[in-house]
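Work Package 4 report. The design task specified in the project plan requires that, given a folded chain encoded as structure tokens, an amino acid be chosen for each position. We show below one input record used in the internal validation round.
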């Protein structure tokens, strides 16, 4: 019932062009948002199924792990382990996820909080479900499982099979890019925009660095997470821009999995 009332209130605020307020750079288009919600639900079901089907490493599997079998780009990560870096990455990513709340400080933005909240929820949901599907399907073993100095419980835990991609990095870059993109769209020409981009991306990169230092991820996991989160954080605002009437979002399902396509129609 609460969701129905929320949707009703949002619809009542829509102007004829679909935006929430006059001059708004964004609008809710239910032909897009419906696909996003439906596709996210499909990915969510797949993610839930995969999450509850994982098992930990057996002692035999642990004994067979050989760093020499890894590619040169990732191999150095097996020497890392730091509980402090792991905790620091948690706090930093939580801060980045909460960072779009900075929009609350601007009185000129408060009339559009409904639209921004829906957009951000979509971005975070797509990031979460995409990550969960990838982790469950790849089952990549974390670098800390190769490290003999790590407690056996952590090396054999079911979570040790969830290295690719880095969810912390994906959420960090998704939040950073979303916040910076929306700010630039709503405050065009602002001198603060480059500083916001630089600061948020630096913080997101720090999250990835901490995950590497913790022994939780390989460099390729972190790079993939950054690309995935950053792409979603940019594309969600892009799809909702008022001037992007020629853009469409299509969720496709194939034999090997589900995917998202952003289509430009000429």
């Amino acid at each position: 019932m609460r969701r129905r009332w929320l949707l009703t209130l949002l619809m009542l605020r829509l102007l004829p062009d679909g935006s929430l307020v006059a001059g708004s750079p964004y609008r809710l288009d239910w032909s897009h948002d419906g696909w996003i919600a439906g596709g996210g639900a499909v990915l969510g079901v797949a993610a839930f199924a995969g999450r509850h089907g994982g098992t930990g490493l057996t002692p035999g599997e642990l004994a067979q792990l050989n760093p020499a079998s890894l590619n040169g780009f990732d191999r150095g990560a097996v020497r890392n382990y730091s509980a402090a870096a792991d905790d620091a990455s948690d706090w930093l990513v939580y801060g980045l996820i909460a960072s779009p709340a900075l929009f609350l400080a601007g009185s000129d933005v408060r009339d559009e909080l409904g639209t921004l909240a829906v957009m951000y929820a979509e971005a975070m949901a797509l990031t979460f479900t995409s990550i969960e599907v990838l982790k469950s399907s790849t089952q990549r073993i974390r670098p800390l499982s190769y490290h003999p100095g790590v407690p056996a419980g952590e090396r054999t835990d079911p979570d040790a099979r969830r290295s690719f991609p880095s969810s912390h990095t994906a959420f960090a870059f998704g939040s950073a890019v979303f916040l910076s993109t929306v700010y630039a769209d709503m405050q065009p020409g602002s001198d603060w925009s480059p500083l916001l981009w630089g600061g948020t991306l630096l913080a997101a990169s720090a999250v990835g660095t901490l995950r590497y230092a913790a022994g939780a991820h390989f460099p390729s996991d972190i790079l993939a997470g950054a690309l995935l989160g950053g792409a979603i954080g940019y594309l969600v605002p892009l799809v909702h821009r008022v001037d992007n009437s020629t853009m469409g979002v299509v969720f496709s399902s194939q034999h090997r999995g589900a995917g998202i396509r952003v289509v430009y129609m000429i």
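The chain has one domain: 25-52+82-247. Validation will be extended to a larger panel in the next phase.
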